[in-house]
Amino acid sequence: MIAVEDWAEIRRLHKSEKLGIKQIASKLSISRNTVRRALRSDEPPRYERGASGSLVDPFVPRIMLLLKEYPRMPATVIAERVGWTHSASIFRAKVSELRPLFAGIDPADRTEYTAGDIIQCDLWFPAVPIPVAPGQAEILPVLVMTLGYSRFHSALMIPSRQGGDILEGMWQIIQRLGRVPRTFVWDRESAIGGTGKLTVPAATFAGVLSTRFRLAPAADPEFKGMVERNNHYFETSFLPGRTFTSPGDFNRQLQDWLARTANVRTVRSIQARPVDLLEEDLRAMIDLPRTAPSTGLRTRVRLARDYYVRVDANDYSVDPRMIGKNVDITATADEVLVFCDGVLVARHRRAWGSKQVVKDPAHVETAKRLRHEFNDLAHARAEKARHAALGTKAHADGHQVQIRALTDYDALFGVTFTTTPDTQQAATSGAITKEAR
């Protein structure tokens, strides 16, 4: 079974680079049947992650001490100094990961971008609390994406910096563009690739779109300096003098400003307006996928007795008839959907604040009815147990009737089965007399 990254790369090479199956198999050193299966599948392969940790981990403190004093020391020399005796490849990989933390000045040349190639992505946190609920305001992230060739800006405020929300925001922006860039450039945002390796949701997203993610080296903000500078431009040109009543109001003002100002101004580095180069940029991109990628927050829980599920610090009611069953939760920027065995059992508008309780009146009424039915049943069982203990029972009309012992009926009809010495002797002789009157 191939990894998600290999599956995504196969699809990118076939769709973006126009390579044939044989060429891809040769390039990636895998079989052609594996390539065919990856191209036929719109979903990533499932696999189990390997155990965490590395043989190099105990040596990291000593490696960092050497790099701090000698940032350019070769990995082979470092291995000799720290007494490394295992595989050289994993040691070089660890040194390459740590070296940027201690590297000196590294001047960056101006980069030339080709049409349709790169879009830089970042999260911008405007220092303006946005009202999200009565008496509650939050500083929310804004997903900013800038095309490398045309410098065309796209931006969208999203509910959180969780992976599902970021990927959903990216998908909304890509849908507006109508085409897919060949490369998404990200820093080491934890929900995308905080460890230097793509998260599974990000790799899946890239595979479905037949594109790729490129992660910036650690501690290197210049790697995506274009979008970083644009964030400063937003701070100084969009925010001053504006007030916002909600996330939706923020997004409406932002989209209007992008269309009227940011994307129609002349950019000095390219001596052109982004809106004028956008069409050329889009023509060089690839088509949207046949199926939409999986985005938003997704989880599965067993519905508890209080019939609420928690999404991003807020609670949402669910049909209480599903209590005790597994329910699947999908949260987009606009709504929260809950399914049980594929059937929709709750739909709510998503709350962007925290500690909010979102109720559906129908769920509350159903819970009230179920609670009454449960209490009635419990009362009937308790009454039945009480009557049994008292030796009484109730007729259908409610009046109680005492339950008599069987000996009372024997006395009523003059029947006795008690044994006396005389009857015992008669029984022995076969002359038992039974009084029936």
Automatic annotation (TrEMBL):
<keyword id="KW-0233">DNA recombination</keyword>
<dbReference type="InterPro" id="IPR036397">
    <property type="entry name" value="RNaseH_sf"/>
</dbReference>
<protein>
    <submittedName>
        <fullName>IS21 family transposase</fullName>
    </submittedName>
</protein>
<dbReference type="InterPro" id="IPR001584">
    <property type="entry name" value="Integrase_cat-core"/>
</dbReference>
<comment type="similarity">
    <text>Belongs to the transposase IS21/IS408/IS1162 family.</text>
</comment>
<dbReference type="InterPro" id="IPR017894">
    <property type="entry name" value="HTH_IS21_transposase_type"/>
</dbReference>
<dbReference type="GO" id="GO:0006310">
    <property type="term" value="P:DNA recombination"/>
</dbReference>
<keyword id="KW-0238">DNA-binding</keyword>
<dbReference type="GO" id="GO:0015074">
    <property type="term" value="P:DNA integration"/>
</dbReference>
<dbReference type="Pfam" id="PF22483">
    <property type="entry name" value="Mu-transpos_C_2"/>
</dbReference>
<feature type="domain" description="Integrase catalytic">
    <location>
        <begin position="103"/>
        <end position="282"/>
    </location>
</feature>
<dbReference type="GO" id="GO:0003677">
    <property type="term" value="F:DNA binding"/>
</dbReference>
<keyword id="KW-0815">Transposition</keyword>
<dbReference type="InterPro" id="IPR054353">
    <property type="entry name" value="IstA-like_C"/>
</dbReference>
<dbReference type="InterPro" id="IPR012337">
    <property type="entry name" value="RNaseH-like_sf"/>
</dbReference>
<feature type="domain" description="HTH IS21-type">
    <location>
        <begin position="6"/>
        <end position="67"/>
    </location>
</feature>
<dbReference type="GO" id="GO:0032196">
    <property type="term" value="P:transposition"/>
</dbReference>
